[in-house]
Amino acid sequence: MPELPEVEALRSFLDQHLTGATIARTELLAFSALKTFQLPLSALHGGEVAEVKRFGKFIAIDVSGTWLVFHLARAGWLTWKDAMPTKPARPGRSPLSLRVVLDDGSGFDLTEMGTQRKLAVYVVGELSEVPGVVTLGPDPLADAFDSDALATILAKAGRSQLKGVLRDQRVIAGIGNAYSDEILHAAKLSPFKPANGLSAEEHERLFAAIKNELGDAISRSVGRAAKELKGEKKIGLRVHGRTGEPCDVCGTTIAEVSFADSSLQYCPTCQTGGKALADRRLSKLLK
Length: 287
Ligand SMILES: [Zn+2]
Fold this sequence. Notes:
Elements (H helix, E strand, L loop, with lengths): L3 H15 L4 E6 L20 E7 L2 E6 L2 E6 L4 E6 L14 E7 L4 E6 L7 E5 L6 H4 L12 H11 L4 H6 L9 H10 L13 H22 L7 H8 L18 E4 L4 E4 L1 H4 L8 H7 L1
Antiparallel strand pairs: 1-6, 2-3, 3-4, 4-8, 5-7, 6-7, 9-10
Helix pairs in contact: 1-6, 5-6
The protein binds zinc ion.
The site of zinc ion has 7 residues, from α8.
């Protein structure tokens, strides 16, 4: 799933390629992807792109005052094409969900792999009409997100576990499963530690890790073409998705905890004082 750094890189890429361009046509192949009904996609046709913004993991394109907003979810992606096919795409098993074609023939496809349909597209007059955008917490890379802002968030989260707090879009915008693992590894904190149970030193480590992990990932990603971003994300991750590999800080084998539809990775030496965290799925099976 693309998270804040990849979405920011996509935003920057789209801003360069779309700003000033006119949208010629759109093709919606996955009808369930369009979540709004007041304005049709054709409201964008003939409009000029003024700017491309990011809100958490959402991208919002200002087309002559109407917004085209999308969220790629777990299996969605964006593909840029310098020359779009002139014939309409055929519906069917293709992963193509939405095609946006500019008047110079270039454009982008939003695709979604797999059977779960989570990719979401909105056409709205006001960004406040997109529920996931309205409820977003603060952006962790904004200047206003300082150590005190994090302290307020953690106090409010009470005994909730850090892993869940970092991933909650209503609390902090843009961090998902991968970067929450990376941040907690860099901060040397257990994913299950209660949010309000950090010492002053742990708090500063967490704050620095949020800024550094996301900032570093952005500097690796921004400026790259859309098609390079997935690979770049994987190379940059030090603990997420690396179960069984040695931790690059201490050499301990990276462990994981599995849940129904996801898993987290951590280093037992760096993060949990050598203790293995209970794997809930496994312990259930063993009972
Ligand atoms: Zn380690």
